[in-house]
Amino acid sequence: MNIAMILEMAADALGDRLAYGTRAEGLSYEDLRSAARGIADRVDGSGAQRLALLEANAPIVPATLFGAAWAGVSYAPLNYRLPEAQLEALLSRIEPAVVSAPHWLDNKGTGDRAFPDSPDAPAVLLFTSGTSAEPKAAILEHDQLLAYIFNTLEFGSAGEDEAAIVVVPPFHVAGVAAVLSNTYVGRRIVPVPGVRFSAEDWLVTARDEQITHAMLVPTMLGKIVEAMEADESLRVPTLRAMSYGGSRMPPPILERALHLFPEVDFVNAYGLTETSSTVAILGPDDHRLALYSDEPLFKARLSSVGQPVPGIEFRIVDESGASLGPDEPGEILIRGDQVSGKYVGTDSKVDAEGWLHTGDRGWLDVEGYVFCEGRADDTIIRGGENIGPAEVEDALLQHDAISVAAVVGLADEQYGEKIASMISLRAGVDDVDLDHVREWVRERIGSLKTPEIIVVVDEVPQTATGKILRREVKRLLEDG
Amino acid sequence: MPNQMGKRYTCAECEATVLVTKAGDGELSCHGVAMEIAQAKPLPSSD
User: Fold this and answer.
1) Min CA distance, A425 vs chain B (Å)?
2) Could you tell me the pTM of the whole model?
3) Which residue of A200, A318, A459, B5 has the lowest C-beta tally within 10 Å?
4) Cα(A375)–Cα(A394) distance, integer angstroms
5) Burial class, A431, CB count within 10 angstroms (exposed 0-12 / middle 13-18 / buried 19+)
């Protein structure tokens, strides 16, 4: 099959329903199909094998995604914030390619142009964020993306009033999944205007467009929580469901969000670029149970990423590759039809038995709930003790002056590594006593895990989707 | 009975699953019996 089938079905069955944009000016599924066919017509004569996108969220995004599928070429959304030289370098790695432009929407496709059946052709090429290494172009095939859609969703299941606000950029796997899954269920997508994320813009757009569904990365949710705590008029009464993912959610921020949105169903979605988005979900009931139960097993699950979605298996292994039991931490392996693990020009990360080696460190609890601590490479080893940066970051974030915290290990002659932290302060906080912050952390997790170095900055280096750029944080802290 | 758009039909005898991408009047059958609509367990929206 071909991911174009998703839009074909929506246009056939729900034609006039709004697919993308505001209530006043949005495109219907039929409009979007015409636009996608028009884009495919343009690609035909170009000789390109890839259709690249260099835009922020706007109607050209879903039109380019589906247009590429209709033309039988790969869709390659790139990070439009990169400097020109880096963009040129990425484009040269996916040649022969053409780049779409917003005015391409004016070219409506004619007739019933069909799309090719190409189950194992590369549908989407996504450059990984490269927080720890050079970016690689991950390949997602049509059938892998469709496995995720067909295994987890019911066609046309959204009510006509449903609308999802999308703020993750198009070049992130969650941006691709948002277009595919919302189109399949028939839920209108509303992008937030502007290139930089603003909590106020998000809250105002969500309220004005009567948003029912939202997906955010943790740093964005953190900013929204801060804005709502500061201004009680900023509320989204129509909101029913909030999912979050993209990087680890610090429980202190999640708890504040749960209290601000008591009626909303929270979902934690865990996935990788290489797994065609979500592979595990922590559902609304798990969140409520975690928040209100005294049972330690349930309480702990506020920091779990939940259970595998249908068609997905998880396994935890030690360094020799042997399977580990419940509560034993090791490397997370994932297997299933939506798992790719292939890259342009380099070896696959999937082994002979189909397991993707994620490089993430975590464990499963007795009922198979997945806990992910972050990248295995980020673990700090101090005096022979393994320390996950997440635990230290969470302790820092419980302090009411701190907005974002990044913790890394720096070389230390005596203990091998020492703990260093870069923090930014919440809106309205001008200054913080660092000795007080150290004491705060020491009281919670002990002196071994307390940062020796704490540096306050205006903005902690992050990717466009709020993932902390640890390489950069480390480099800055090393340079003093 | 006509088949329904976007529904998945399964066979009671084998592993066959059919997704209806264009609805029609025909009845889907496998192993000589009508295929039944698969009741999907809805997952909460994650994106």
Assistant:
1) 29
2) 0.90
3) A459
4) 16
5) exposed
